[in-house]
Design goal:
By secondary structure, this protein is mainly alpha-helical. The protein is about 80% helix and about 0% strand.
Length: about 300
């Protein structure tokens, strides 16, 4: 009996390890975000039922989550030594799954995503194949270079939204403003993560912006990026677009970005950078759920 419970415990640990490696919580947020963006921003004129029960959209979103999960896996595979320095506790959990198993799951997820994409169209197959390739290239090579690593990471992070955006062929200006805001927040997050991981990056010879140009230069770049986020924020707050109560979110993010900037210049330890990184994560997560504020009556008005 004890043997069985130990076996069960190991299975649970391995599942927890897999969830940790593929950042299950991030994937869940991404899944919700793609659906909310589709309902409120990309296809606001379609009945809710039509969006929710669109098989092609569901297949695209699932394919995206598989690719992102495989991206986290390959990233974890290449960053094993670096993560041991930067995130020892998380790495301990992640290592309940062997590198061999991580690679096997990586290939299975990518294979499944391309099969799913083929259900939608040949263009979707090309799109996901390129997405998979660039995620691998980023993890293997590009992330070790200053500027290009941060830029590519930010582009790859918003690519799942691009898949849904192309599917709906909606080229409204408001979408580009939303995308610019998200891209800048993610870029700020990526660079803050580089400050947080400075020790491991330095040890493993990753040429990130903080490693090559120093902490002060990184903070200047971050300050410029924060200043740039104010442009889409102010455009979205000024009643130019119909975003309902979501303008309160952009007001809040404006205040939080000022707080971020204030503490950024006071920060010097890993813990302080981790807290700043978590603040940016919070801004992104609140942003996902505040899409609901664009039209609170949407569920009532569009169910039929």
């Amino acid at each position: 009996m004890g043997m069985l419970s130990r076996k069960n415990k190991l299975v649970l640990l391995k599942l927890a390890s897999l969830f940790s490696v593929v950042r299950g919580y991030n994937i869940l947020i991404l899944f919700i975000a793609q659906y909310l963006a589709s309902i409120y921003i990309l296809a606001p004129e379609k009945p809710l039922r039509e969006v929710l029960f669109d098989v092609n959209l569901f297949v695209l979103v699932i394919a995206c989550t598989f690719v992102i999960a495989s991206g986290y896996l390959i990233n974890n595979f290449y960053d094993a030594e670096k993560d041991l320095i930067n995130r020892p506790h998380k790495t301990l959990l992640d290592n309940y799954i062997s590198q061999k198993t991580k690679l096997a799951i990586y290939f299975i997820l990518n294979f499944l995503s391309v099969i799913l994409a083929s259900y939608v169209s040949f263009k979707a197959v090309i799109f996901f194949s390129l997405f998979i390739f660039f995620l691998w290239l980023y993890s293997h090579k590009l992330k070790k270079y200053p500027f290009i690593g941060t830029l590519i990471a930010s582009i790859l992070a918003i690519t799942p939204f691009f898949a849904v955006f192309v599917y709906y062929h909606n080229f409204d200006m408001v979408i580009f403003v939303h995308a610019t805001f998200l891209f800048l927040i993610i870029s700020i997050r990526e660079l803050t993560k580089d400050l947080e991981n400075l020790k491991g990056d330095l040890t493993q010879d990753y040429h990130t912006i903080p490693v090559v140009y120093g902490v002060k230069f990184s903070k200047i770049i971050l300050s410029l990026l924060v200043a740039l986020t104010l442009i889409p924020t102010l455009i979205l707050i000024s009643n130019k677009f119909e975003i309902g109560y979501m303008h309160y979110y952009f007001l809040l993010s404006f205040i939080l970005m000022i707080i971020f900037l204030f503490f950024l210049w006071k920060s010097s330890s890993k813990l302080q950078y981790t807290l700043l990184h978590n603040l940016l994560k919070l801004i992104i997560v609140i942003g996902v759920f505040s899409i609901l504020l664009i039209d609170i009556d949407v569920v009532l008005n569009r169910v039929l």
